[in-house]
Amino acid sequence: RAERSLNFIEQIVDEDIAAGKNGGRVHTRFPPEPNGYLHIGHAKSICLNFGLADEYGGQTNLRFDDTNPVTEDTEYVDSIKNDVRWLGFEWENEFYASNYFEQIYQFAESLIQKGLAYVDDSTAEEIAAQKGTPTEPGRPSQYRDRSVDENLDLFRRMRAGDYPDGAKVLRAKVDMASPNMQLRDPIIYRIKHAHHHRTGDAWCIYPMYDFAHGQSDAIEHITHSLCTLEFEVHRPLYEWFIQKLDLFPSRQIEFARLNLTYTVMSKRKLKQLVEEKHVSGWDDPRMPTIAGIRRRGYTSASIREFCDRIGIAKRDNLIDVGLLEFCIREELNRTAPRLMAVLDEKPLKLVITNYELGREEIMQIENNPEDPSAGARDVPFSREVYIERDDFMENPPKKFFRLFPGGMVRLKGAYIIKCDEVVKDNAGEIIELRCSYIPESRSGSDTSGINVKGTIHWVSVPHAVEAEVRLYDRLFSVENPAADDPEGRPRDFKELINPNSLETVRAFVEPALVKATRSGSLTNVQFMRKGYFILDQDSTDALPVFNRTVTLKDGWAK
Ligand code: ATP
Ligand code: MG
Ligand code: MG
Q1: What is the Cα 517 distance to its own chain's centre?
Q2: What pLDDT score was predicted for residue 556?
Q3: How many structural domains comprise the chain?
Q4: Of these four, 123, 183, 262, 472, which has the most CB atoms within 10 Å of its CB?
Q5: How far is CA 192 from the centre of its chain?
Q6: Which domain holds residue 451?
């Protein structure tokens, strides 16, 4: 903590503690609505809420903000719990706003009794019209002056199910002339005859966000209620309820939501991508969901590191997804073993003519030069190896340090070879290269005295394992698909989907790779010169599948 300056939320918490508020207690909550999977924006909120409590020896509740029966589901509840744990956090209490329905209902009756809430029969359109515009005062509803008794009776009948959806609402009686539109008699209860995933059919009226969130904070004695900037204008209402209902004074603090380039971050839009099958599911590795990012090969440590680096801001901004990629790259550079894979459906076969037929050698290749403790592995070498088609050019330009006719190159961890002959089929396509190796050039005991500029990766043909490799790119082709077009017109974000966000290729990989990843002893790997990859859940015994997490920043020896 001493290493960096405090962010503005820590400063507020410090002031509160210094002022003796809440006996120095810090209690936060993470309040997802279970209507979708968590995304990287939520990760920021999770790291912030849990991180703050950790820092001050406090606690964090996981609270499901499940006040909308129509959009919520237990599938989402389970995925959210799983994702929070995976990110490395454990909550103090698991709570549900729906557990407070009776208490929140009583708060509403108490407001009515104080003359601070009324039942309104106006339609949604009429209520919107009454609210007017920010520059002029609103108009009171004709139902605003109903008596306490009439309001109580109507509200109880709303609860009893006497009215259809939309027939009536309960509104807080705040101030129809307030310059803050949120205070112009906001709706706090609505009728919804819908089955709730936890309370079943017990209720047919449900509290609105503004009459559930702060009330839940108060019930749980949350000291600091952190939310995103769009709720800043709701804060006066949050505080009005605390005052009028004499609730525990939780303090709402707003911070900037995380937006990332080349993706969208609203659950509604993500859900559309899933439902309209633009992606394979919530955990499609191109999705900004925690489940997608995890499947893509990101570690929880890299996500926490990312959230740490972006910090806490008071203004909305758009963070370059390159920073997220940087965080995982930096980690995997240190931790991921480097193996060889030839990503080519029709790789180039190289026949080493002076290497005896049937001979095999085991090469010891170090797993990670950044990490000596990672040791070495056995890599079989034989007379025939596959290389990338790109690593050979028949007519190379100057400074091409890979293979060309008459040229020499080192096969990584093995021998220096020379290209003697190019074999083509009738159509003129190169089908193999006939080469010779320098026996004295074996890696580790090279006495050949030959210096070659290029080193390329390879896989022994008889030992190669075929795999499917999924090369992911950005899901959208523009930086901010949620923004309007340059002329200020709204755009359909789905028209901005990158048509080339997934390329599936066949590959030939080292046998050790498949063995180790399948046994679970290896998760993230580097394919030398190609990028970082992870075994995907779609793998079968016949065909392992690898997802590209991120490309390498720089290839070596290119
Ligand atoms: P979405 O717009 O994606 O549906 P939401 O805010 O409606 O998000 P909730 O489930 O209500 O989703 O969010 C739970 C918590 O996560 C809230 O406290 C919310 O402020 C926070 N959160 C959501 N999105 C972001 C984001 N992009 N950056 C930071 N915090 C976020
Ligand atoms: Mg929300
Ligand atoms: Mg939302």
Answers
A1: 23
A2: 35
A3: 3
A4: 262
A5: 32
A6: 348-387+389-456
Q: Are residues 82 and 157 in the same domain?
A: yes
CATH code for the domain in which residue 71 is found: 3.40.50.620
What's the pLDDT at 555?
34
Contacts of 402 (CB under 8 A, 6+ apart): 390, 391, 392, 393, 396, 409, 454, 456, 558
The whole-number pLDDT of residue 554 equals: 41
Catalytic residue among 267, 295, 296, 442: 267
Is the shortest distance between the CB of 44 and ligand 1 below 6 Å? yes
Is the CB of 186 within 6 Å of ligand 1? no
Backbone dihedral region for residue 210 (phi beyond 0: left; psi -120 to 50: alpha; all else: beta)? alpha
Q: Give the closest residue (by CA) to ligand 1 atom 10.
A: 32
Is 35 annotated in some ligand binding site? Answer: yes
pLDDT in the model for residue 1: 59
Q: Is ligand 1 within 6 A of the CB of residue 407?
A: no
Question: 234 labelled as ligand-binding?
Answer: no
Q: Which has more pLDDT, 376 or 557?
A: 376
Cα 407 to Cα 304, 349, 404, 419, 452, distances in angstroms:
47, 16, 5, 6, 9
- Beta-bridged to residue 287, according to DSSP, are none
Q: Is 382 exposed, middle or buried (0-12, 13-18, 19+ CB in 10 A)?
A: middle
Ligand nearest to the CA of 72: 1
Q: Is 40 annotated as a binding residue?
A: yes
Angle between helix 321-335 and helix 300-310 axes, rounded to 10 deg: 140
Is 94 found in the same domain as 177?
yes
What's the pLDDT at 541?
85
Q: Is residue 7 annotated as involved in ligand binding?
A: no
Ligand nearest to the CA of 31: 1
* Contacts of residue 318, Cβ cutoff 8 Å, sequence gap at least 6: 259, 260, 261, 479, 480
Residues 212 and 250 in one domain: yes
Q: State the DSSP H helix or E strand holding residue 28, giving kind and residue range, or none if neither.
A: strand 27-30
Rounded CA-CA distance 352/435 in Å is: 5
The helix (H) or strand (E) run that includes residue 321 is helix 321-335
Q: Let me know: does 61 contact 29? Beta carbons within 8 Å.
A: yes
319 and 357 belong to one structural domain: no
Condensed to tens digits (0 to 9), the pLDDT of residues 289-312 reads 999 999 999 999 999 999 999 999
Can 267 be counted among the known catalytic residues?
A: yes
User: Is the CB of 265 inside a 6 Å radius of any atom of ligand 1?
Assistant: yes
Q: Confirm whether 549 is domain-assigned.
A: yes
Model pLDDT for residues 203-215, shown as the tens digit of each residue? 999 999 999 999 9
Please state whether beta strands 187-191 and 205-207 pair in parallel, antiparallel, or not at all (unpaired).
antiparallel
| Residue 513 pLDDT grade (very low, low, confident, very high; cuts 50, 70, 90) | confident
CATH, residue 296:
1.10.1160.10
- Residue 363 falls within a domain, yes or no? yes
Number of other residues whose CB lies within 10 A of the CB of residue 135: 6
Question: Catalytic annotation on 558?
Answer: no
Given this model, what pLDDT does residue 557 score? 35
State the catalytic residue, choosing from 10, 33, 150, 479.
33
Count CB atoms within 10 A of the CB of residue 544. 21
Q: What is the pLDDT of residues 411-439, one digit of tens each?
A: 999 999 999 999 999 999 999 999 999 99
Q: Which residue has the tokens 């006040």?
A: 67
